[in-house]
């Protein structure tokens, strides 16, 4: 701010135009209220299916579509019914180990491939990268028959290991794309300094690059956990033995052709979403940091 010439005995006046401009830049109260109203409406619209799911699991069968939104009588009878009728514990453990193994495999392969495409030089690098990205354009429904025939040919049909191979191979390209983007944000000087100090590429990856890529790994873990936990098509096609099925195909079997026990179905779905919520709450800070990485530039 610039000061004007003042007469003797007067306080110099300052130019208040920047302050006035700053006041004009502040959003009006009406604008804030309107933005808050829109955000609240979007949040309510997003949360409503979850609220309906939980409330439906706590109401009697005869009040599903005729009673009020908030039931007048709460009952927890649907939860033990869903636990027993679906063999929830067995299929929950199947989903848990298949999802954990898939997430571990995808994180390992995607991290190694992402580091190679971001920081290393090798022949046909761009060609291989484009070929991997091209696999993302093919929908899962168009690949289900060829994959089914391949698994049957190698003897992995009706085998959880075959399902695990499908999950890892189909999910690794997208996760590799994400990890490559995170690795490219890291300065090359760190990698070059570690190489000058005599570190091998594996040591550079494990001790220098990988600790800095935790937000990217958290993003991959949450996306992959959610995708694998809720996957239905591959599991229902590859596995014919009911005892080997993960949780989602078994819960889908509760849908009847003419009648559906909605409290039991929603109770099973409510219990099935608990691991997803726990994983997100556990890694939410790194997940948010991964989504905003690179948004602010110095």
From TrEMBL:
UniProt subcellular location: Cell membrane
InterPro entries noted in UniProt: MetI-like (IPR000515), MetI-like_sf (IPR035906)
Xref: Pfam families: BPD_transp_1 (PF00528)
Keyword terms, alphabetized: Cell membrane, Membrane, Transmembrane, Transmembrane helix, Transport
Transmembrane segments: 33-55, 96-118, 127-149, 161-183, 204-226, 262-283
Residue segments, region Disordered: 1-27
Domain ABC transmembrane type-1: 92-283
Family to which this protein belongs: Belongs to the binding-protein-dependent transport system permease family.
Protein name from the UniProt record: Carbohydrate ABC transporter permease
